[in-house]
């Protein structure tokens, strides 16, 4: 009896070798043999969920969302241990960043933090006021078209903490703040700056803000007095301030 030999082709299915066609992320292999997930240029995705692994290797870094006007939410877990500075700047419709089981990052009310600092304020949130007891990192606030008032209660406000907040009306620096960068504001001119802090007044650089309220008995710098004139005392939230206007 003649035997017929059937050859069955061997098909290897590598689920993680090729990204899904609807995945808005691209992946770059790092020297550490892990991947960085980067939002594709021109992506119109509104929601992005960052996978734990790609091509069998961990995805540990996040980059490339800057200036994207479509993204509304980003989700990732404990695998992400590094996010490039400025990754989420000028994402004007970003409403929520969600993190789970991470020792490096956390989210509170949709905003991104580490243990000490606010890293990213989600610019697309509809809140008009925001208050935080955390330090404020460089580029934590960018655009945020609905935000009108920010109250800073943390110890540190870094360089370019507030960038191009065109709708902002007031920034409040509390008595707890002991370090503030000369360039903590960039590309905006809030109507009002309230400084309830005596220790930083003589080193604080204020640039072209129309109204500045300085806690009474604070000592302002000569540079400040060359640009601003005292108008009157005013009470804000039961504290007395010296009200100055641009000369």
What does this structure look like?
By secondary structure, the chain is mainly β. It folds into two domains: 102 residues, Alpha-Beta Horseshoe (Leucine-rich repeat, LRR (right-handed beta-alpha superhelix)); 122 residues, no CATH class. It is built from one helix and 24 strands. The chain starts with 24 loop residues before the first strand and ends with a strand.
Mean pLDDT: 90
Secondary-structure-based class equals: mainly beta
What is the terminal separation in angstroms? 108 Å
Uncertain regions spanning at least 5 consecutive residues: 1-17
The tally of structural domains comes to 2
User: What Rg is obtained from the alpha carbons, in whole angstroms?
Assistant: 24 Å
Shape: elongated
How many DSSP E strands?
24
The main sheet orders its strands as: 12-15-18-21-22-24-23
Order of helices and strands: EEEEEEEEEEEEEEEEEEEEEEHEE
Q: Level of helix content?
A: under 10%
In what range is the share of β-strand residues? 35-45%
What's the total helix number?
A: 1
Biggest β-sheet description? 7 strands, mixed
């Amino acid at each position: 009896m003649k035997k017929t030999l059937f050859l069955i082709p061997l098909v290897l299915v590598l689920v993680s070798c090729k990204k899904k066609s609807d995945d808005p992320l691209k992946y770059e292999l790092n020297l550490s043999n892990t991947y960085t997930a980067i939002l594709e240029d021109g992506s119109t995705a509104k929601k992005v969920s960052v996978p734990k692994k790609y091509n069998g290797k961990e995805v540990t870094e996040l980059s490339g969302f800057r200036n994207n006007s479509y993204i509304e939410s980003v989700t990732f877990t404990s695998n992400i241990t590094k996010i490039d500075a400025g990754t989420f700047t000028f994402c004007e419709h970003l409403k929520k960043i969600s993190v789970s089981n991470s020792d490096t990052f956390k989210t509170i009310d949709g905003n991104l933090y580490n243990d000490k600092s606010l890293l990213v304020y989600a610019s697309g949130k509809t809140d008009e006021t925001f208050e935080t007891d955390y330090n404020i990192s460089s580029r934590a606030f960018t655009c945020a078209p609905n935000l009108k008032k920010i109250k800073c209660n943390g110890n540190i406000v870094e360089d370019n903490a507030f960038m191009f907040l065109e709708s902002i009306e007031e920034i409040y620096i509390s008595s707890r703040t002991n370090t503030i960068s000369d360039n903590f504001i960039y590309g905006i001119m809030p109507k009002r700056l309230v400084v309830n802090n005596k220790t930083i007044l003589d080193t604080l650089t204020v640039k072209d803000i129309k109204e500045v309220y300085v806690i009474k008995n604070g000592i302002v710098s000569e540079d400040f007095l060359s640009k601003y004139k005292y108008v009157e005392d005013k009470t804000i939230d039961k504290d007395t301030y010296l009200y100055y206007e641009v000369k």
